């Protein structure tokens, strides 16, 4: 049986939602090991005029506790 823990991470990117998710996982990986999955909880964007300037995600990351 595995014990998993879930943390919530907010991240952003000027490129895409996918890049923002990668940033969230990469940042979490600096202090958390054994990451198993990432669940996109929320997505939002910043808009300036008629252009999207930033993609934001709220990600739930699960990892195995040993």
What does the model show?
The protein is of the alpha+beta class. The protein has one domain. The protein has 1 helix and 3 strands. The chain has a 3-stranded antiparallel beta sheet with strand order 1-3-2, with helices on one face. It is elongated, with a radius of gyration of 13 Å. The mean pLDDT is 96.
Features:
alpha+beta; 1 helix; 3 strands; 61% strand; elongated
- Overall geometric form: elongated
**Beta-strand fraction estimate:** over 45%
- Summed up, the helix count is 1
- Strands ordered across the widest β-sheet: 1-3-2
Specify Rg, calculated over alpha carbons: 13 Å
Order of helices and strands: EHEE
Q: What profile does the largest beta sheet have? A: 3 strands, antiparallel
> How many angstroms does the end-to-end distance come to?
11 Å
Q: Low-confidence runs (pLDDT<50, min 5 residues)? A: none
Oligomer: single chain
- On the 0 to 100 scale, the average pLDDT is 96
For the record, the count of structural domains works out to 1
Helix content: 10-25%
């Amino acid at each position: 049986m595995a014990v998993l823990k879930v943390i919530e991470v907010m991240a952003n990117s000027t490129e895409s939602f996918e890049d923002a998710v990668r940033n969230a996982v990469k940042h979490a990986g600096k202090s958390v090991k054994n990451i198993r999955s990432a669940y996109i909880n929320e997505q939002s964007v910043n808009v300036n005029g008629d252009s999207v300037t930033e993609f934001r995600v709220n990600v739930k990351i699960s990892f195995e506790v040993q």
